[in-house]
Amino acid sequence: MIVKQHVFLTLYSIFGIALKVAATKNKARGSQGQFPIVQNVTVTEGGVANMTCRVDSNDNTSLQWSNPAQQTLFFGDKKALRDSRINLVRASWKELTISIGEVTLADEGQYTCSLFTMPVKTAKAFLTVHRVPDKPQILGVTQPVLEGDQVTMTCVTSGSKPAAEIRWLRNGKEVTGLKEVNLSANTYTVKTSLQMNVDLNDDGVIYTCQVDHVSHPSTPQLATQELVVHYAPRVQIKHTQPFPQDGQFLKLECVVRGNPAPEHILWTKDGGELPDLDRMIVEDQELTFTSLNKTDNGTYRCEATNHLGTAHDEYKLFVYDVPTTPPPSTTPPPQPTPPDTTPSIDTKHANPAVTDPNALGPHNTDHALIGGVVAVVVFVTLCLIIVLGRYLARHKGTYLTNEAKGADDAPDADTAIINAEGNHASEEKKEYFI
């Protein structure tokens, strides 16, 4: 059937040429310098391709379109091939435009426009057909994934022409994968693999496979996969007061991460149950002290458990004394300074878990004042001793000098003293001590 149709078209073309030769024989010289003008066409599969052939001037010479198999589609305004997808758009002495609807990959190829001068002149236009890639799929993930497992996710898209481009995105940020391209039946299958060791930070992360293609440059195709990672609990205790004081309100929050969510959260004190449930309120993951006192000192533990394991965190509570308030003043008081937390060293009585750093702190000022007073008293006493010593030394020197004055003519000591006293009125000697 196809052979008969081809023969018919060939005879039809020859017959048409013969008619045109007879009609344009005298005008051929005016068309010798004309060449048909065509353009390459690109269309997406399923679309419409318009093929246009034109000349700047023409002396009633016919134009013809032929397909890649050299079958005549239109000779002038006469349709030669029985294909309902091929239709005439415009026919004149200067232009021949046809349309091919519902284009398939089989329509791709080189089309020929012929201008029937003597000799016949031709121009060739290539019809390129693109094929949209199939919707991408993400393979290789079995949910849930355990922390520490190695996972390989593969994004696959097939049927594209030309080959599609694939990008991996982790929460919107591009990551690099390993690409593989295969050609089959004029279409391409593209794979991109992403390999990783998962941890708890991958839980809830959205991985996106984005397929870009020239047929739809502004609307890429997407496939997404949210990763579910199961892991043992992580526990951290947070508190509201850096230096809790007697009588204050205190809240301890047990911040727990775990997937699946921990089945049980337990609060304990010093390895046992909470002692005072009237003042210690447990609600969900929070432990609240309505009014602290010294009996609350100790180590508090929050413990969380799921089927993958158990974790805990500890908080050592020490309740500080309320600092002495200063006398009233007209100026705003300064911010209170936290008590000195350096513990005193006592090898016999010190408690390594709880030590009161306030035992010596409030008396530091009194000790300094007493020390100053003692220093002043000692200094005054020393000054008095020095002055008294000098006074005694001066009088002792005068007595020895008088005795020496009477000793010059006396036979014994008593006579010397009498002589010294008798001479004192008549002659006075002065001695200076340096």
Structure in words:
With 434 residues, the chain is α+β, with helices and mostly antiparallel strands. The chain is 18% helix and 36% strand. A 6-stranded mixed β-sheet has the order 1-9-8-3-4-5, covered by helices on one side. The protein has a 5-stranded mixed β-sheet with strand order 11-19-20-23-22, with no helix packed on it. A 4-stranded antiparallel β-sheet has the order 10-12-16-15, with no helix packed on it. A hairpin with a 5-residue loop joins strand 8 (109-115) and strand 9. Helix 2 packs across helix 3. It is elongated and about 160 Å long. Mean pLDDT is 80; it is low at 1-31, 339-363, 397-405 and 423-434.
Write a brief caption for the model.
This protein has helices at 2-24, 364-406, 413-426, and strands at residues 41-44, 49-54, 63-66, 72-75, 78-79, 86-91, 95-100, 109-115, 121-130, 137-139, 145-146, 150-160, 165-170, 173-175, 178-184, 187-197, 206-212, 221-226, 229-239, 250-259, 264-269, 280-283, 286-289, 298-306, 309-317. It is an alpha+beta fold and 434 residues long.
DSSP helix fraction: 10-25%
Count of helix runs: 3
Mean pLDDT: 80
Strand content: 35-45%
Write the element-wise H/E pattern from the N-terminal end onward. HEEEEEEEEEEEEEEEEEEEEEEEEEHH
Which features characterize this protein?
18% helix; 434 residues; disordered N terminus; six-stranded mixed sheet; alpha+beta; elongated; 25 strands
